[in-house]
Amino acid sequence: MSVKAISEYITESKDTVANFNGMQVVYVYWEKHLMYASPFAFLVAPDMTLGDFLDGVLRPAIAAHPDSARVDFAQGQWSLNGQAFRPDPAVGLLAQGVDHKSMLTLTTPGLTGINGSAS
Question: Which domains does the chain carry?
Fold first, then answer.
């Protein structure tokens, strides 16, 4: 729906990285695993290594899913903001382009959701 302002309309975004006290929001979507209705949103330090993020943040978040024990993040297919991405687990998030409000998408070949529901 369009809006026609009757005067100058000035807005300031409240979700800029400057308002997160040195942290950033990172979204993760686990493709074909619809037990999770939307991407996860995590508040993380930009210098956290990807390996620490995957093992310490993402793995516990997906632990309730029956496929989670079989996830091999190193064999996963990744995209970052819609572009192919080859993550390095030893490098910090920001250093490899994962910045505030980035979307990581993980595809896990061979894992197709609960009872193959997304195959």
Answer: 17-116 (3.10.20.560)
